[in-house]
Amino acid sequence: MLKETRTTRLVKSQDLNHHGTLFAGRIAEWFTETCFLAAVRYFGKAEDLVCVKIHGLTFMKPAHPGDAIELVAIPARTGRKSLTIAGEVYTNDDTSPSARGFATFVSVDAEGKPYAHGLSLPADWIEAHRELCEEAERIQAQGR
């Protein structure tokens, strides 16, 4: 099913780095998990998806204890065997992302061998999410 996947997390003391802000590793974990959920929602089979790359996860603003983190992920590109998900992270009610990036997943069989999944994004989806879909295409073309 094609739609946004949203998850919300509370920044707690165990999520902090030595500066007292949200640890990048924790947000990377949450980011990857949310992107995986979006990939599974579209693909349909969690057991056949593996994450092969996180692209350009960039942090623009810190998060602090007690902040609510909302992660939003959407399918942004399909390859023959891959699916790239765009993810954005929002802190509290801020309308500009505090972090963003992409995660690419590959469909694999029971032996771990990639296979063609047959998925494609509809033209109206691509048009509605043009900027993220175009960025996902550029990232893939550059091999980043």
Q: What percent of residues are in strands?
A: 25-35%
According to DSSP, the number of beta strands is 5
Shape: globular
Helix/strand/pairing class, anyone? alpha+beta
First-residue to last-residue Cα separation:
27 Å
The CATH architecture term is: Roll
CATH-assigned homologous superfamily: Hotdog Thioesterase
- CATH fold name, please? Thiol Ester Dehydrase, Chain A
Question: How many domains?
Answer: 1
A few lines on this structure:
With 144 residues, this protein is an alpha+beta fold. It has helices at residues 24-43, 123-128, 130-142; strands at 5-10, 49-59, 68-78, 82-91, 99-107.
Task: Please give a structural write-up.
- With 144 residues, this protein is of the alpha+beta class.
- The protein has one domain: Roll (Thiol Ester Dehydrase, Chain A).
- It is built from three helices and five strands.
- The protein has helices at residues 24-43, 123-128, 130-142, and strands at residues 5-10, 49-59, 68-78, 82-91, 99-107.
- It has a five-stranded antiparallel beta sheet.
- It is globular and about 45 Å long.
- The relative contact order is 0.20.
SSE topology:
Layout: E1 5-10, H1 24-43, E2 49-59, E3 68-78, E4 82-91, E5 99-107, H2 123-128, H3 130-142
Antiparallel strand pairs: 1-3, 2-5, 3-4, 4-5
Highlighted features:
globular, Thiol Ester Dehydrase, Chain A, 144 residues, alpha+beta, five-stranded antiparallel sheet
